[in-house]
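Q&A log
Question type: sequence-to-structure
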Amino acid sequence: MTDLAPPNSEETRGSQRRTILIRHGETAWTLSHQHTGRTDIPLTENGRAAARCLAPLAARARFSLVLTSPLSRARETCALAGLMGEAQVDADLLEWDYGQYEGLTPEEIHARQPGWMLFTHGCPGGESPAQVAERVDRVIARIRGWKGAEGDVVLFTHGHLSRAFAARWLGLPLAAGSFFLLDPTTVSVLSHYHGSPALKCWNAPLEF
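Response status: OK
Response body:
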């Protein structure tokens, strides 16, 4: 399990906060490998058990800002981590809108569109990479402009959205999100190195 100890001497302290990305727990569509964008389905029992393991981790940390996607799988993960009472819902943290590809597996999508890559092509009837980048950038601007109390920021969100977020945090094109594989109920830490955005930890699993 990862630890959310205070930044070490190589990281920038003060106004440049760390951002903790937490992908929601497992759902039925996680198991069936269906693209789950705006379909609001709950966690499985296994997903809930994993999310409860976030609570001790969250209790040891100090958060200045807690944000969650409006979708129930993210909000339930946040609640089971013990942070829903202080969370703010941010629609910019919604998962990618898959449009016509909602509920389809990768195999079904590639049968329709060979060579398809979400982070490059987007989805017909859904969002383009540019549209996702626009809302991810709004969240990043919100975090970097946040004037609240001392402490990290934690986001409860989704797989593809988190991967896009990591790319944009590092100043990379959104298409670079394809390089950041991410599992359910994992913790990732975005930080700074001598004032520049940096990746401290990615896809750290929970033990349960």
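Response note: The CA atoms of residues 38 and 102 lie 8 Å apart.
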